Task: inverse folding
């Protein structure tokens, strides 16, 4: 850029030289045209100091004629040819045709010369304009290019030749192509708010996913439980089966033992065997069922602990008690008939008996009253008749009774024989009654004779008294004397003694006879009894043996039944015991299992909670870190933004393209910073024209040239001649660039003149030391100062703006430094 | 010539002055020449001297104008811009200071 802005002084010399040589080469070719060309002024080149180069422009035309071939543009290249081409109608300087003094040339040549001259003039003008445009490379060229359509292509083509040949650098007419770096791109690269938010959200999403993927408590529990179930299942299956097997085996063994003992204990009878086998089968079935139930109960580990299995504990069936032995059946018909007859007889018999009994009793009672009543005499016939009547009654009834009784007895005998010894139940009663009756009847009969006895007694007593004591017979009982009484008493006593002796004698006789009779009877009876007894004994023996047998059978059955019962009970007890044991075991194991399960699950629970907690803590920490990071990043981003904007502004200031927008953006970014506000206001109110360094450099080169050219002109009254002189001087003075100023401050302020100042400033500018350059430039004096004044002002303003923007940038840097992420 | 749509830079003043000068001179010279030709043709029987005279007068006038124009900083209000610049500086310094 610098070099492009700075046309080296030497270039013009070389240029001149080339032009001169070309001219020297070309002059024999066309002298006529040279003459005509020299007199023409070049109306196209109205910018001025190159008027002296007009002569060289003619050479340019010739050179231009020599190289049409490789030019890209089309029509225009043909035009410089001096063949007879009709010139296009849009040739710019029509005045060029009018002004060339046709009058100055010889009017005698006729039309041909006229035309030739016209053509020459036109081409000359064109070449002159082109050459000048090329040379000037500035506003004239731009104007030309803007007004004339294809001139840019022509000039571009010329550029392609001229630039390599003359070493001319990049032309100024081109826009500065390397733009300010698009900071928007950079801005985009910074993670904006949205992106940071996105990132934060992403993090949150990932954390949420993680959290969701963590199993819930319930599922954890379920998983733990299922795990525990599996573990416990395997455990149980491993252990319980063995234990259950052992228990069941034990139970079966016990049962078997019980059965065997029972079997051994019992006597070996067929029925017993059968019952036993039956019992055994039952017990085995019971054991089997127990086994089954135990086996089934085991895998139900998932059930609630302590729940007793309901299969065990069914009470085994109890056999019913055996029935009593049935007595051997009597031939029923006879039995029944006899019984009927007996019953039939019994009722009237009993009635008769009763009647008889009552009669007898009546009689006896009556007689008793008679006897006890001493006042009764024998003459009382009514009572005696009654008594007799009663006695008669009793006697008749008694006879009836005896008859019926006899009958009945016969029947009974039959009955007893048929029933083999079994006595009719009524018989006893009848016997009793009969005995009572008999007693009563005897008393009644005895009492019957009471009256006769009384009569007889009185009679005899009277007789006795008469015989023995005749003297007493006639006396009344009141008339008896003491001696009589004694005599009576003696008599009575003697009589009584005698009677008593008689009674005794008779009693003895009686007793003897009775004894004998009794003995005889007894012997009889004994014999009978013996017989009967033997009969009876046999019968009863038979009966008893039967009974015994039946009893034995019964007993046996009872034994069986009891045994069964016992077995059943034992079995029950066993099963109950088994069940108890099993349930207890089960409960124990279930409890243990539950405990372990709880342990494990709480462990897992705690673990997971710990993990959750740590994860959550980490999450929180991460979130906080992210937020803090976000904050700091936010601030950093702001600072960066500010910095970028400041850079932007700086660059724009440097390049001269600031806009209001940039400044407004600044105010939007950091609305709170006072310093920034001050700077911003300053920048905003800066009304100086927008420049950039390029322009300033360019201008400086221009300014420098001008200054050199007017170096001799000072503040006094200067004439044009002075201008020419100073110009001439500028041509002659050749200064090397003096870079010593940069190394040591070797400026002698007293010996400054324009050229040195300009040199120094040139060096400064080339080393980008604008401030120094500006300071030095201000030391110019005279016309150069005037010439450079606006440059100085602009540079000053530009530098001020740059300084402000640099301040802004520095400030943004300072802010940004504070928000850098803290890394260790 | 060029209408200044912005305040003229000082270095261009010089250029513009020269433009003016040259054009002016040329115009004057040309007009002088023309007049001279006219006069020569009309009044002075095609003698060459009016032409030269006219041209010379023209050139001289132009020269004088140029010179006067170049001296004009001390007549025009150029110093005011300097003062304005100074004011600008002063205000700037007061603002920032």
Result:
């Amino acid at each position: 850029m610098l070099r492009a802005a700075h046309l080296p002084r030497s270039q013009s010399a070389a240029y001149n030289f080339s032009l001169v040589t070309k001219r020297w080469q070309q002059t024999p070719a066309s002298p006529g045209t040279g003459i005509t060309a020299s007199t023409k002024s070049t109306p196209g080149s109205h910018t001025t100091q190159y008027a002296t180069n007009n002569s060289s422009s003619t050479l340019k035309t010739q050179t231009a004629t020599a190289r049409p071939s490789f030019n890209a543009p089309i029509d225009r290249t043909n035009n410089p040819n001096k063949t007879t081409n009709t010139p296009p109608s849009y040739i710019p300087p029509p005045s060029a045709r009018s002004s060339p003094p046709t009058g100055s040339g010889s009017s005698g040549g006729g039309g041909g010369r006229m035309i030739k001259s016209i053509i020459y003039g036109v081409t000359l003008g064109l070449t002159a304009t082109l050459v000048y445009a090329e040379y000037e490379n500035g506003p004239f060229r731009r104007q030309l290019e803007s007004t004339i359509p294809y001139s840019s292509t022509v000039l571009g083509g010329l550029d392609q030749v001229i630039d390599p040949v003359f070493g001319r650098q990049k032309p100024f007419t081109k826009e500065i192509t390397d733009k300010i770096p698009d900071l928007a791109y950079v801005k985009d690269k910074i993670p904006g708010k949205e992106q940071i938010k996105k990132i934060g959200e992403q993090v949150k999403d990932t954390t949420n996913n993680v959290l969701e993927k963590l199993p819930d408590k319930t599922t954890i529990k379920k998983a733990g439980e299922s795990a525990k179930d599996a573990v416990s299942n395997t455990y149980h299956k491993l252990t319980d089966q063995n234990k259950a097997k052992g228990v069941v085996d034990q139970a079966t063994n016990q049962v078997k033992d019980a059965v065997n003992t029972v079997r051994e204990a019992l006597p070996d009878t067929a029925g017993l065997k059968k019952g036993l086998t039956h019992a055994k089968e039952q017990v085995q079935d019971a054991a089997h069922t127990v086994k089954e139930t135990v086996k089934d109960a085991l895998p139900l580990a998932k059930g609630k602990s302590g729940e007793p299995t309901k299969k065990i504990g069914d009470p085994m069936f109890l056999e019913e008690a055996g029935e009593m032995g049935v007595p051997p059946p009597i031939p029923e018909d006879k039995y029944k008939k006899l019984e009927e007859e007996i019953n039939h007889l019994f009722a009237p018999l009993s009635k008769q008996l009763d009647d008889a009994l009552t009669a007898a009793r009546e009689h006896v009672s009556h007689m008793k009253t008679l006897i006890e009543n001493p006042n009764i005499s024998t003459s009382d016939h009514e009572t005696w008749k009654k008594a007799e009547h009663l006695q008669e009654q009793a006697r008749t009834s008694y006879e009836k009774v005896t008859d019926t009784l006899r009958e009945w007895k016969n029947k009974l005998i039959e009955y007893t024989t048929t029933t083999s010894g079994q006595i009719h139940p009524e018989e006893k009663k009848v016997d009793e009654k009969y005995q009572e009756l008999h007693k009563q009847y005897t008393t009644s009969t005895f009492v019957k004779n009471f009256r006769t006895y009384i009569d007889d007694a009185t009679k005899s007593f009277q007789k006795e008294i008469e015989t023995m004591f005749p003297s007493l017979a006639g006396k009344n009982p009141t008339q008896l004397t003491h001696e009589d009484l004694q005599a009576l008493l003696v008599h009575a006593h003697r009589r009584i003694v005698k009677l008593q002796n008689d009674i005794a004698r008779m009693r003895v006789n009686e007793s003897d006879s009775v004894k004998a009779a009794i003995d005889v009877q007894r012997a009889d009876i004994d014999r009978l009894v013996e017989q009967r007894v033997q009969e009876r004994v046999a019968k009863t023996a038979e009966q008893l043996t039967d009974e015994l047998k039946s009893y034995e059978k019964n007993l046996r059955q009872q034994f069986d039944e009891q045994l069964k019962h016992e077995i059943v009970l034992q079995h029950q007890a066993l099963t109950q015991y088994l069940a108890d044991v099993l349930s207890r075991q089960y409960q124990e194991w279930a409890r243990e299992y539950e405990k372990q399960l709880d342990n494990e699950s709480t462990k897992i629970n705690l673990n997971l909670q710990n993990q959750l907690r740590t994860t959550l803590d980490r999450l929180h920490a991460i979130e906080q870190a992210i937020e803090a990071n976000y904050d700091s990043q936010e601030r950093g981003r702001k600072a960066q933004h500010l910095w970028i904007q400041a850079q932007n502004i700086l660059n724009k200031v440097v390049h001269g393209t600031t806009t209001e927008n940039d400044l407004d953006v600044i105010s939007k970014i950091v609305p709170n910073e006072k310093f920034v506000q001050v700077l911003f206001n300053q920048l905003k109110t800066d009304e100086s024209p927008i420049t950039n360094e390029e322009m300033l450099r360019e201008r400086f080169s221009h300014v420098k040239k001008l200054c050199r050219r007017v170096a001799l002109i000072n503040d006094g009254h200067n004439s044009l001649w002075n201008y020419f002189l100073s110009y001439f001087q500028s041509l002659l003075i050749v200064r090397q660039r003096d870079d010593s100023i940069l190394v040591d401050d070797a400026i002698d302020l007293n010996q400054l003149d324009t050229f040195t100042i300009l040199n120094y400033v040139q060096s400064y500018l080339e080393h980008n030391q604008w401030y120094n350059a500006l300071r030095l430039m201000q030391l110019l004096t005279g016309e150069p100062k005037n010439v450079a004044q606006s440059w100085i002002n602009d540079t000053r303003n530009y530098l001020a703006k740059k300084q402000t923007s640099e301040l802004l940038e520095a400030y943004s840097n300072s802010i940004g430094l504070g928000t850098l992420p803290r890394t260790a | 010539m060029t209408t200044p749509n912005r305040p003229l830079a000082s270095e261009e003043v010089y250029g513009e002055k020269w433009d003016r000068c040259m054009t002016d001179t040329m115009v004057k010279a040309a007009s002088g020449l023309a007049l001279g030709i006219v006069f020569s043709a009309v009044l002075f029987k095609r003698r060459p001297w009016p032409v030269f005279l006219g041209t010379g007068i023209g050139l001289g006038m132009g020269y004088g104008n140029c010179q006067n124009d170049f001296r004009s900083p001390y007549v025009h209000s150029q110093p005011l811009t300097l003062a304005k610049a100074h004011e600008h500086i002063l205000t700037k310094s007061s603002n920032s200071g």
